Fold:
Amino acid sequence: MMAPLTVTDMHTGGEPVRIVTGVYPPIPKGTILQKRAYVRDNLDHLRRLLMFEPRGHYDMYGALLVEPDLPGADLAVLFMHNEGYSTMCGHAVIALGRYAVDQGLVQAVEPVTTVNIEAPCGLVVASVEIKDGRAASVSFESVPAFLFAGDRTVDLPGHGAIRFDMAYGGAFYALADCRQFGLAFGRDRVRDFVDAATALTEALKAGFPLSHPDHADLAFLYGSILTDGGDGKGEPTRNVCVFADAEVDRSPTGSGVTARLAAMHAKGEIKIGETRAFESIAGSLFTGSVARQTKAGDREAIVARVGGRAFYSGKAEFTLEDGDDLGMGFLLR
Structure:
């Protein structure tokens, strides 16, 4: 029987964040990407145990805190999901910002406490609003985000020519108006959005090469985001992010909102300092703005600020008995 694994569960905009609190096997020193590779290659059975049934589900999401490598980082995190390990996760950063203050990982300072979080994509700076000594809403500024390719088309069987943008917000996303698929938020099934987004992702993975100026490990398509075609000005723009192995984000997706802001700014649809509202498939809201312009290698880029709220949902201690093969994790969809 293995030693118990303890977790604290939170959610941001309805999207789960299972934070591992103990006890994980030691992870060798190195860069955050080296730690990500080690966990992927040597400890993946624990991801399956925590994310998959019977303890999790197809759309579970997790965060494993590891020793920081970057100077100035208060903590470092590896993100995990049904397929593996992502490079950035905004909804988890929002949860971890509050968690870090509540657990005393950083000292609370009113009215705003800064939490420097090292993610596989780089350093992410969370700003935690403190009210009456307690953490409340959280916003973050992520790594440089940019439009990789705009107004491209791909032919999808059954759908014809689909226009999309490819943008990076800590991870790469394809962005497309859902109306091209004959879909409408509030009318069509989530399953229909998942099928359309997955078809787009798979087609682009097969025929749309990506690159990132910092590291080859960042150059992969994480998923597709279908939008309502709005810009979040005046009223929220709705979107759904389908990532990893057809996992559905219940939140507006922090890294996805960052990617959308980068694409919007590159197209002249948003100015520095403007705030827009983004609504998820579940009806939760994030705010997003362009904080400033920057560079990513030789690419024009922005730093986005994305904000939301996270809440606690419980704590658990998980065990695995000898002979429990199903307890190692399985998925049904």
